[in-house]
Amino acid sequence: MDYALSMYLRQKWVDPRTTYDPLPGVDLLEMDARVMNQIWVPDMYFVNEKAAHFHEITVPNKLMQVYPNGTIMYSARLSMTLSCDMFLQKFPFDSQECDIHMESYSYSVKNVVFNWHEEPLILTKKGLKLPQFKFIKMEHMNCTKAYEGTGTYTCLRARFYLQRTSSYYVAQVFVPSVLIVVLSWVSFWLDIDAVPARISLGLLTVLTMTTMSANARAHLPRVSYIKAIDVWMAMCLFFVFTALIEFAYVNVNARVEKRRTTQAGGLQLSFNPDSSSPGENGEVSA
């Protein structure tokens, strides 16, 4: 599972090789994109990145400012797709935690150390709204770790806390499924002899619930565990199916009872003692 984002990555470091004497009226130098390739940049990479690209329309979206004391501020606009370990047992009433791992690829802590800027660390768009999630908060931490055989490498991690908005699923899944279950109960009030109507209603509700359950799972990752929405759809299908089974059971019992009543009436007519006893005149009464 993954998520996508676009961001401005900003880094600041000090490189003594870029110091220069202050110029009158010039506080800093703004470097052209062609000159940026000649200046050293930290070899940061995203550990959980699956796909990414820099924006280059109409020019490379990069910025570099060099101060007289050798301080360099570098900014780049990029879009990425990052992996995120989501747990969907409570879907669609779940909350997720997604990370961004930033690490140095080739320089160990002996040469490069990443630190979060003092304040603010991460800026988000004011009034940010996501289609399926509600942005709760974010945290930052240091995740420097050692690799066997290569050394210790600096690492930073940002964690986003997201809560899924369930209004879409309430309107598109839960409410319609409840109405379909209630509709299947209408067959209880139909006459027992209205077989075509009750069978049509029962089969229609069963097929509708099956289709709705398949559509609800079509856009979800295939996981090996049961989700909350799976339990809901299974119970709705169970109620609809049992309503159809109830009609079959009642119909069979009604036909058996009707057959017994008909047979009992026929036997009583055939073996009635009064119908075959002789009359007073020695005649058999009809």
TrEMBL record:
Amino acid composition bias (Polar residues), ranges on this chain: 267-279
Keyword terms of this UniProt record: Cell membrane, Ion channel, Ion transport, Membrane, Signal, Transmembrane, Transmembrane helix, Transport
Localisation per UniProt entry: Cell membrane; Membrane
Domain Neurotransmitter-gated ion-channel transmembrane: 174-259
Matching CDD domains: LGIC_ECD_GlyR, LGIC_TM_anion
GO cellular component terms listed in the entry, alphabetical order: plasma membrane
Domain Neurotransmitter-gated ion-channel ligand-binding, residue spans: 1-164
Keyword S-adenosyl-L-methionine: no
Transmembrane segments: 167-189, 195-216, 228-250
GO molecular function, one term: transmembrane signaling receptor activity
Chain intervals for the UniProt region annotation (Disordered): 267-286
Pfam assignment, any one: Neur_chan_memb
Top-rank taxon, per record: Eukaryota
The keyword Signal appears for this protein: yes
Membrane topology: Multi-pass membrane protein
Xref: NCBIfam families: LIC
Family: Belongs to the ligand-gated ion channel (TC 1.A.9) family.
Protein name: Uncharacterized protein
Species per Swiss-Prot/TrEMBL record: Elysia chlorotica (Eastern emerald elysia)
